[in-house]
């Protein structure tokens, strides 16, 4: 149970009581039940306050490393912002530059393929707000710095290996966007057959939202929803994403809500295999704890 409590602490649902000496107990207490209820509400799950099968399945799903809730976030009914609603402040029209780390990059997807993924992703966000994105070669001077990293990479948010935290990004005007090098990244599920493959474009879309100032949404269909199952795609902005980012930057003069509303009726479908929980020790611990809880 203490491992589950650490998970809820990491993503903003639980704090360590002052009398527990910086550690968690294995007791299913009222504070932990409240954390579960908050988690279930945030993820649009049935609110039971228990570690039921849907809650456990969601906990085990790969996800973004940015916290879902807490004092540094400001939530609305669906979408949310970082505390203070930070945003990029530049001249009008605004242009933000981005670059890829020359030393922290994967080699099994071509750089041209990675660039194309991010170009499409930035274009989708630019289509709804008056912000342009331009790739430059100089990584050090770019507003947005993109790279693939593993483990503890010096930003206080270490990655945890395959199918845990997929990526994270920081609020404006930090500009850092980091992807976990340990994942099996894919740009074409037809070519990448791994059951644990993660769609690079879907994660890019999500993390760019953080770069712009959006926190996590409780709308499952939204790009800014925190989790993404292996071999699934979520690249089209939904109404919740658009309303959130336009509240920060205003609307692109060429954007039309009618086209967005039409796309709401033709959402992307998951591609490939159904998700199967990873066989990591933590996942098995979650299953064991849930079974013990239901038995007792």
Automatic annotation (TrEMBL):
One of its GO terms (biological process) is collagen catabolic process. The active site is at 207. SUPFAM superfamilies: Metalloproteases ('zincins'), catalytic domain, PGBD-like. Residues 84-251 form the Peptidase metallopeptidase domain. It is a lipid-anchor; GPI-anchor. Its cofactor is Zn(2+); Ca(2+). Ca(2+) 1 binds at residue 183. Zn(2+) 1 binds at residues 153, 155, 168, 178. Binds 2 Zn(2+) ions per subunit. GO terms for molecular function: metalloendopeptidase activity; zinc ion binding. It is found in: Cell membrane. One of its GO terms (cellular component) is side of membrane. Zn(2+) 2 binds at residues 64, 206, 210, 216, 224. Ca(2+) 3 binds at residues 160-161, 180, 183. CDD domains: ZnMc_MMP. Keywords: Calcium, Glycoprotein, GPI-anchor, Hydrolase, Lipoprotein, Membrane, Metal-binding, Metalloprotease, Protease, Signal, Zinc, Zymogen. Belongs to the peptidase M10A family. Matrix metalloproteinases (MMPs) subfamily. This is ATPase ASNA1-like protein. It comes from Hibiscus syriacus.
């Amino acid at each position: 149970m203490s491992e589950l409590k650490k998970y809820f602490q990491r993503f903003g649902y639980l704090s360590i009581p002052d009398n527990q000496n910086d550690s968690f107990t294995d007791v299913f207490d009222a504070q932990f039940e409240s954390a579960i209820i908050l988690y279930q509400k945030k993820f649009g799950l049935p609110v039971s306050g228990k570690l039921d099968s849907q809650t456990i399945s969601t906990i085990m799903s790969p996800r973004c490393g940015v916290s879902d809730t807490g004092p540094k976030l400001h939530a609305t009914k669906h979408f949310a912002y970082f505390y203070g609603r930070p945003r990029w402040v530049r001249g009008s029209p605004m242009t933000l530059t981005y670059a890829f780390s020359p030393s922290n990059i994967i080699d099994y997807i071509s750089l041209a393929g990675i660039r194309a993924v991010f170009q499409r992703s930035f274009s989708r966000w630019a289509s709804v707000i008056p912000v342009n994105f331009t790739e430059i070669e100089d990584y050090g001077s770019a507003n947005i710095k993109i790279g693939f990293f593993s483990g503890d990479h010096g930003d206080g948010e270490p990655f945890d290996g395959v199918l845990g935290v997929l990526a994270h990004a920081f609020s404006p005007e930090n500009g850092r966007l980091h992807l976990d090098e340990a994942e099996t990244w894919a740009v074409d599920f037809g070519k990448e057959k791994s059951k644990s493959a993660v769609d690079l474009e879907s994660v890019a879309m999500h993390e760019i939202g953080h770069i712009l100032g959006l926190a996590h949404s409780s709308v499952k269909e939204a790009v800014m929803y925190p989790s993404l199952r292996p071999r699934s795609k979520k690249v089209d902005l939904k109404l919740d994403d658009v309303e959130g980012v336009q509240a920060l930057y205003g609307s692109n003069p060429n954007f039309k809500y009618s086209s967005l509303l039409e796309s709401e009726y033709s959402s992307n479908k998951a591609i490939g295999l159904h998700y199967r929980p990873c066989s990591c020790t933590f996942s098995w611990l979650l299953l064991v704890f849930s079974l013990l809880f239901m038995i007792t």
